[in-house]
Amino acid sequence: MPAPRQYDQETRDRAVRMYRERRSSHPAESAIQARRQVGALIDVKSETLRGWIERSEIDAGVRPGTTSDEHTELVRLRREVAELRRANEILRTASAFFAGGGARPPTQVICAYIDAHKHRFGVEPICRVLSEHAMPIAPSSYYAHRRRPVSPALRAEAHLVNTVIDLHREHHGLYGVRKMWHLMTQEGHLVGRDQVARLMTIAGLRGVRRGDHRTTTTRRRAADDRPRPVDLINRDWAAPTRPDQWWVADFTYVWTPAGFCYVSFVVDVYSRRILGWRVASSMTTALVAAALDQALFTRRRTDTRFTSTGLVHHSDAGSQYTSIAYTTALVDAGIAPSIGSVGDALDNALMESTIGLYKTELIDRYRRSWAGPQQVETATAGWVHWFNTRRLHSSIDYRPPVTYEQLYRQQTSAPAGEAA
Fold first, then answer.
1. What's the number of CA atoms in the CB half-sphere (13 Å) around residue 375?
2. Quick one: angle between helices 193-203 and 177-186, nearest 10?
3. What does each C-alpha distance from 171 to 147, 194, 358 come to in angstroms?
């Protein structure tokens, strides 16, 4: 049987009493000699006995220092602080691992987290902390899960979860269940909507939700008396049967520490494609005219048959769109201007919807990142490219705008027999 690592308290107290009695009965001896004599009798080293003596004097208040009770309390507090820090680290890493809360993750996901962090925190502490925060799991459940063989169905589900995570990240973490279901189907995965919802729950994924976006146009006395084009759209957004039949335009603002900047868009109603956009530090006619010029250039560059004659351009009654310079540019291009009624944002609802997506999917998600117009411009370029080429739109059969236009051209250019 191995020797005990520490002397019991009774042995210590007896050794101290023997030392004091020795000092009293042999006043001529030095403290070192007395400790050696007592230590030899009870088989304790002199230095060890010295520590016991000093501790006894501190506890009695004779010598300054931390008493035994205070030392015990400090040890207890330090242990509690260490446990709290470990619990906070477990919660921090778990929050990142489970990506955003919701219902309790499945047991296999919790076990995967334990596998990833057990060497750092230990299995029992992780189980205790998770159980205290609405993720109950016992160490025995973890070990039983680890001993259980992986079934083919569970392995296939794990692969699907990884696929969902990869596709969700490719689309900037914006898609909810509905769009992820259509995306998975287009990627060749035969999964149902409810299954996609369950896979996203396992992965801790969720889409962004568009907040309330209200735009109110106000009447200006000078503008009321000024003639302007009539409304040729009348909110019939489903009417276009081809690209470049109707375009809509509007602009919005973005706050940055360098001041407000403004972003204008021109969108094709049929395909929802953003044809032109521009970022500027002032909301002038040049801002909206630049977006129009880019839209015309985009069409002329990619389609030699494009003509703007007969195209309808719809906007609100903002002074930039009712200005003489902008109206003249539309007329020169053969475009018919259309203006919605003042005070009714629904007359340009499709454009308001696009701007709402822009704010939700880009601007509001990275609100603290915008140092100035240049950063907004760079990020907007990336978002517009993704919006046009990869984003699924429910209004056009869950296809990207560019793909939807390509399908239209393929159908209209095919011979009648092939189209049938």
1. 16
2. 110
3. 37, 20, 14
* Residue 397, Ramachandran bin (φ over 0: left; ψ between -120 and 50: alpha; else beta): left
Q: Which positions ≥6 away from 5 have C-beta within 8 Å? A: none
Note the helical H segments in 268-369. 285-302, 319-322, 324-332, 349-358
Contact yes or no for 295/276 (Cβ under 8 A):
yes
Q: Identify the CA nearest to 123 among candidates 103, 141, 107, 106.
A: 141
Contact yes or no for 251/364 (Cβ under 8 A): no
Cα 182 to Cα 165, 192, 394: the distances in Å are 15, 9, 9
Residue-level pLDDT at 216: 45
Alpha-carbon gap, residue 97 to 119, rounded angstroms: 16
Nearest to 110 by CA among 85, 93, 140, 135: 135
Sheet containing strand 312-315, strands side by side: 274-280, 259-268, 246-256, 312-315, 336-339
Let me know: does 377 contact 250? Beta carbons within 8 Å: no
- Opening angle at CA 33, ends 30 and 35, nearest 5: 110
Structure confidence by residue, pLDDT tens digits, 231-275: 888 878 788 899 999 999 999 999 888 888 999 999 999 999 999
- Taking a C-beta distance cutoff of 8 angstroms, is the pair 110, 130 a contact? yes
**SS3 category, 56:** helix
CA distance 272 to 248: 10
Direct distance between the N- and C-terminal alpha carbons of the chain, in angstroms, rounded to an integer: 93
In this predicted model, what pLDDT tens digit does every residue of 337-350 receive, in sequence order? 988 765 555 667 88
Model-wide pTM > 0.85: no
What is the C-alpha separation between 208 and 78, in angstroms, rounded? 43
